[in-house]
Protein 1
Amino acid sequence: MRNSTTGWLLLAPTLFILVITGLLPFVYVLSVSFFDWNTFAQNPDPQYAGVNNFRRLVFDAAFLKSLWLTLKFTVFVVLSQLVIGFFLAKMLMRDMPLKGLFRTVHTLPLMIAPIAVGATWRLLTVPGLGPIPHWMKEWFDISYILSRFPDQAFATVVIMDIWHWTPLVTLTLMAGLSNLPEEPLEQARIDGASEWRIFWDITLAFLKPVLLTTIFIRLMDALRTVDEVWMLTGGGPGAETRFIGLHIWRVVFPKTDYGYGSAMSLITLYLTIVMCWFLYVAMTGMKDKTR
Amino acid sequence: MSRVTLQGIRKSYGAVTVLKPIDLDIADGEFLVLLGPSGCGKSTTMRMIAGLEAITEGKLLFDGRDVTAAHPRDRNVAMVFQNYALYPHMTVADNIGYPLKVAKVAKAERQAQIEAAAKTVDLTPYLARFPRDLSGGQRQRVALARALVRSPGVFLLDEPLSNLDAKLRVAMRAEIKHLQRNLGVTMIYVTHDQIEAMTLADRVVLLSDGAIQQVGTPDEIYDDPANLFVAGFIGSPPMNFLAGQAKGGRFAAPGVDDLPCIGAGSLTLGFRAEDAALAEAGRFSGTVYEVEPTGESTYVVLQMGIHRVNLRCDKKFRPALGATLRFDVAGRQCLFFDSASGQRVR
């Protein structure tokens, strides 16, 4: 009995902090989501609205569009980062001169705050000032104006995220690759498997835990991207790069629609959890099949 | 089944030579053991035969076909690694069947071959299990079955028993020998354990410092060692050595009287513990340093000048410590080596 009391006492500070920073805000957001609460409305006080906020969401074209954009963005960046990160990891593990320098330089983007990344890319892409529009015109005769062409804006945001976060994927994959056991790979070569087969049948199986962790981290990060995009495009042109984080911010802050914003946050959280769960089941299920 | 020929095969990493040029002809169906202390180049030799390590110089032939630069999959070899190298995410059946799967063997055919291989090594009840659910000996058998299933020309085994406990090792040793004999395949086996080498091999290749020290049947290696290294490496306890001087056909060393010998100058006399017999009028004498009963016999350690030698005596024999014992060794069992070069004087 004494033991369990001591245990709880030792856990208490952590639990206290977790309750204050995690559970309470969640419960608060959950409760707010059932109220109609807008400080700019005729009646600025919260009024109980049941599930009205959630019902509104389902038919909110702006929200759905933002959700769709976010999903598209997430799929693009996470897949690209995995592929590019894997090849970079492979390359940076080879013996070559200045390997250490390359490794260091390639991780530099990770150390830059997202808001600064956004600012840097904005400077690169501002027409009349940034070098990218200038050379795009010069070399390819493309007028590159982020505030006018949605596709350009979307592509630039994707590329910026890939530039910023691929090093993280490279680092984790490098850790995974350098921990690969040598013998099963050699065994597979002797067993007659081609390099592609070995990668698919053996290497991936050994990398699975690292891959899963990396994908989770990147997926969750990508789903809640705000600051970089806000700095680069402001969500524009129009709402063409207004991802879900930005959308919620707009609803909650400039529009002060707290109840509706809370409902949106909850749905986004729910979707994130569901996506991760699906992914987990899919990846571990893949393992079960080969069992 | 294949005949394997190594012609002047050499391996170096940059300026460091790890294997001096070796020539070896391994007959079809032969059980060849590469034996040596760690770092002697035995595993490197095997890995070059497997194709996992590039051959720096020389030629490797399988049945006369040059495979020096061939990819491992084009050599028709199977290998069993020290740590078994099983695929942890595949069942025993999938592990065994993997070489067939990549060779695109039809599923039904594959299943039949997996079952046949599993039966050979008594794994049939474990086919649906994962490697992590198996004991060391069972994992070892999975690795063997995976090697068997391809009906390879050459079987390569890299210290396959070193991770097993002593009892299991003896049992698996016999199984491997039995398997090789039944299948009649060429088997190349790497080990640092001389007992394993002696019990398994048709021929033993003893390597040290990246060079072959001696090639021969276990009996030849044991009875007729080519140099001090071989004589000292093979046998338990190792061969006894006494350094002395030879002059006029007589060998002189502390505790040795009037022993005829061949050669002259600094020689080392070698004899085996079991070849020494206690005798009142023996030409060798020493004081008892320690007595080591083993159950089946008693080893007496004698101090002879600066050397200590082992004698195998009757199991009931218990001499007093410090007592002087005389013994003799038959002339043909006294082997002489040149002390400087280590080479046998014949």
Protein 2
Amino acid sequence: MVMMLPFVTVLLSAWFAWRGSCAAAVGWWLATLVIFVAWCLYHMTSPLNISL
Amino acid sequence: MQLSARLARCATWLDTLGLLALAGVLWFAFAWQLLLHELPCPLCLLQRVAFAMAGIGLLLNLRSGVRPLHYGVVILSSLAGLVASARQVLLHIAPGDPGYGSPFMGLHFYTWAVVAFFVLLVYCGVMLLADRVDERPQSRGLGLLVRIAALAFLSILLVNVVGTTLECGFGPCPDNPTAYPWLRWL
């Protein structure tokens, strides 16, 4: 799991948004969202330690 | 003047302030990381990504015209950030748990993140009340304040790419990071 990857894709998305390329910006944003979900599955599937 | 028309008139100003606030949050977190030498954990990094993703929607509004699609980007990003920050709150909810990192104004950063993502969701809901179709959906020029907000936003994203690479390299981050192992390679 490459941790810095979503920062790269969201930077690309921001760059295209800044350049006015809406479709490319939304495309890279979607790629970031997919990586985000994969990251969540990687980091959030251990049981919570909240039993009292 | 109707509420929706007032909201439509204020949209650019509010989106600019929103983008400045998001850039400010990310810059503040990075300054905190450097000054207090408190490295972000994986869930903290996830929340930073979600703030950055939300900023994309506001930047698109400012650059390409206000559209519901762009508010949809902010809403989905805020929901993603809310999941990550609420998960971290729950991880530290047990009595006696000191939490992760130092608190700021009595709350940890992930608790502030829950509040911030909730505010973003409310903001988008209110802005979508404006029954507005942008007359200039094509790319448009940027005012000075918009430029400052966009530059602050883009620069902190670049800084985060470098910072995360130094902390995690090209693999997963440790759960409780204490150093920048990739600094040794420089």
